[in-house]
Amino acid sequence: MARDLSQLQKQYNRAASMPMRRGPGGPGGPRRGPMEKGKLKNSKATIKRLLGYLNQYKLRIVLVLICMLTSTVTSLFGSYLLAPVINKLTFFVTQHETDMSAMERFADGIISSITGPINALVKSEVVTYIIATISIFAFIYAVGIITTYLQSRLMLSISQGAIEKIRNDLFNKLQKLPVRYFDSNPTGEIMSRFTNDIDTIDVMINNSLTSFISGTVTLIGTFIFMITTSWVLTLITIAFVPLFMKLAGVIAKFSSRYYSGQQAALGAVNGYTEETVTGQKVVKVFNHESTCVEEFTLLNNDMRDKQFKAQFWGGIMGPIMGNTSQVSFGVTVGIGGIMMVLGHLTPGALTVFSNYSRQFAMPINMLSSQMSTIFSALAGAERVFDVMDTEPETADPENAVTSKIKGEVVLNNVTFGYVPDKTVLKNISLYAHAGQKIAFVGSTGAGKTTVTNLLNRFYDINEGEILVDGIDVRNYKRDYLRENIAMVLQDTHLFTGTVKENIRYGRLDATDEEVIAAAKTASAHSFIMRLENGYDTVLESDGANLSQGQRQLLNIARAALSNAPILVLDEATSSVDTRTERHIEHGMDRLMKNRTTFVIAHRLSTVRNANAIMVLENGEIIERGNHEQLLELKGRYHELYTGKKELD
User: Fold this and answer.
1) Distance of alpha carbon 646 from its chain centroid, rounded?
2) Assigned domain for 537 exists
3) pLDDT per position as a tens digit, 159-174
4) How far apart, in Å, are the Cα atoms of 469 and each of 191, 431, 481?
5) What's phi and psi for 533, nearest 5 deg?
6) Is 574 a member of any domain?
7) Looking at the 3D structure of the chain, how many domains does it have?
8) Is the pLDDT of residue 451 over 50?
9) 612 in any annotated domain
10) 399-433 per-position pLDDT tens digit
């Protein structure tokens, strides 16, 4: 039965009320609340933070501004030259002198300054003036083209550099986040930060930011040239600005309301897609294809509705502003025509001002048309910065311990819960001498995996202490502690690369000889040599071309290579057949030699030779002892071993 939209939104938008989701290392923490819908949380702070990524490019930004200014001035001055040209051509036709303004006379003087040499060749005043005008226009617009090209190249290098830094910062932050974060957030939604959200920021920096700066410069420049042409018509044009601003404000208010919702819906779709594709075998085994289609359709339709509203209000701004500017243009030109008839304005000045009137609205229209991109990028940036602002793992103490670890482990009255109102472990106490094998047995959810998560400091305990060689694990340098604890999990993960590289992941500075020795320890050498290219065989798609047992043997080889004195085996053989299990156990027996080992197993036959077996139920140790002692108790372990009861 398909879940309804509200249930899917709660799950994939990380609603706080969502139950914990079991991650690769145990239950995750509480879901974090969804991004506040209705408006961006703090657009000013987000913009300020984005601009911070541009600080290292100050010189290039200055050059971009110079290029923009030059390009704008050449475009505006090119338009301004039309006034004396039109007036001059009118004079040639009508022989009627027009009263030009000071700026018009200045522009006419520039053209006239090069007419002398041309007139000596052409012998025609009209042709000479036209050739001189074309030459000046060609020079002005050539400068404009060059500066526009340089501006685009510089801005592209700035945007790509800033995006590279944002992407690096985001990825680096992910490496510092606790396991709790990854247990409680869908992988697809995290990936959405790297793809959709950063892409929208890239578009904004490269295109929208350029358009914003260029539009602002053009707006100011146009205003200056307008005021020098006719201050009366300028005031009329300016009178429409409050209307422009009011319309833009209203539309922006509606736009911002939907863009954060759009990005959140996109993340939900990505999260669901990633989860469904990853679990496709399970989907097919239980014939849930139609249910998945129904649920995806709900999420997809929700995203479509949010995108429609966001894109509609973002896209409608351009047409509305454009049509409003046409009204402004019509009024301005109409009054300008009356002024020309009355002799207060030359034909050239009216033509130029009409052009400027359109140009004055163009930057406003251009800026308004970028609002959809800007709002989308700001929503994406907030989501990216939300990850960057997540609390990382607690810092190591100033004098963190890095002394050699032998493998003596003690838990004293350890109490822990993933969330404050639910205790998972209650006053757990146990010890393991160096080289001993300690096994954990119990029902699903009893807290077995949680013990090993705490040993690695994937999570920190609420009460009590965990000691390694008599030192609290919180006093060790976290990286050093984990270097000394090797783990073989039920769910193996192999990276894209060769077999040799995957084994070497256990210790990156290991030699080829050490890699082969580790593979032999794990009983993996023989099957590796049967692969097409042996240790140089490339694995892809998490080792899809290997069997589950072979993948697990590589996982054991990786742990063997680490030489860690403490070993954790978390149901390492539960997903393989009995024959493969025996093969893996031979490798694990060699791996466990001279190491303090913690074993979590559902198959009790694998823990018979443990020095001590802890039976956990509901977060408490209800029985402890070796195999023979626990059988003599005739309690929970005896019931499980004899088959009177089964593990839940």
Assistant:
1) 45
2) no
3) 889 999 999 999 999 9
4) 40, 11, 11
5) -120, 25
6) no
7) 1
8) yes
9) no
10) 898 989 999 999 999 999 988 788 899 999 999 99
